[in-house]
Specification:
The chain is an all-alpha fold. It is built from eleven helices and no strands. The protein folds into two domains: 119 residues, no CATH class; 108 residues.
Length: 311
């Protein structure tokens, strides 16, 4: 039985390596080469699309090749693809190939963890029932790990955006009150906060670029709220859209919102400080108090044991 598991694991790993090698280094077909030559030798130059400006990295190309069979077998629905693309934008991955890379990571995770666990069980000589249990557990871990990592990345980035928004609004108020327009103020805030808060800086730069290429300001601000998924930024964008639509003072509106956001940030800090005492209770009860009991009551317990032994 152990020999059968070992041979089966070796064959699966060998076929997996051969499949990856074929996906990476397979020769292109004659039709693909012909279409490529026709595209290279075509007529006048055509301006590249905005998404084509981003060059594909080797990792993205490898991930696309790995995820291509999965997309053919189980193509994602349009709603699922849009939801995944939105989650990846919240995590900071705006590349067109981000969804393909994520699906490739999911596929490799589903295949890698069970293969490693099966090989380890075969080497250690585990029985078939125990090996099947651990392989199933590894499959569950490989399925849930990419989703958990994506959620953690989204939460971490949204927290960084949330904490950097108050500083960005203070600088935005100063820039607008100094006489700059909203677009110029966004550029100024992006330049000043590049080293301190790079996430909020990137989002403001993208918003300003959308406005500069001709997109409506209200639409660019809505895209900013959709890309980040932060409720404070969504409220700020709604306030700026209303102020621009009704012709009210943007500087006054941003100043009032910055004051309220500063108060909210201080309240969040106080709330986190209040939670710290409760969170420290469980490590103290599990690790510190037993050690103290052993150190303080250990010698007395040993003396009592010796006394009762001599009686």
């Amino acid at each position: 039985m152990i020999l059968f598991i070992t041979i089966t694991t070796f064959v699966c790993i060998m076929f997996g390596v051969l499949g990856v090698y074929w996906l990476m280094f397979r020769p292109p077909s004659a039709a693909t080469e012909r279409l490529k030559r026709m595209g290279d030798g075509g007529g006048g130059a055509v301006a590249p699309a905005p998404t084509a400006i981003i060059e594909d990295s080797p990792v993205s190309a490898f991930a696309e090749r790995v995820a291509e069979p999965l997309s053919r077998i189980a193509p994602p629905s349009a709603a699922e693809a849009r939801k995944l693309q939105k989650l990846l934008m919240h995590a900071g991955y705006r590349s067109p190939s981000a969804a393909v890379v994520y699906r490739a990571v999911q596929l490799l995770s589903l295949a890698f963890f069970p293969a490693i666990v099966a090989l380890a069980c075969a080497v250690m000589g585990r029985p078939l029932s125990s090996a099947a249990f651990w392989i199933l557990a590894a499959f569950v871990v490989g399925f849930a790990l990419p989703r958990y990592a994506l959620r953690r990345m989204i939460k971490s980035r949204q927290l960084r955006l949330q904490w950097g928004l108050a500083d960005a609004l203070d600088l935005l108020v100063v820039s607008i009150e100094a006489g700059l327009g909203l677009n110029a103020a966004l550029i100024r805030v992006g330049e000043e906060l590049k080293e301190v808060h790079p996430d909020i800086c990137d989002e403001l730069v993208i918003t300003n670029m959308e406005i500069r290429v001709g997109r409506d300001r209200a639409e660019s601000l809505r895209n900013l709220a959709e890309r980040t998924g932060v409720e404070d930024l969504r409220s700020l964008c709604g306030m700026l859209i209303q102020a621009d639509r009704f012709g009210t003072s943007i500087a006054r509106a941003v100043r009032v919102y910055a004051d309220s956001l500063r108060t909210k940030r201080r309240q969040r800090a106080e709330q986190a400080a209040q939670k710290a005492a409760v969170k420290l209770l469980f490590p103290l009860a599990c690790f510190l108090f037993p050690v103290l009991f052993i150190v303080l009551l250990g010698p007395a317990f040993i003396n009592l044991m010796d006394t009762f032994a001599n009686m």
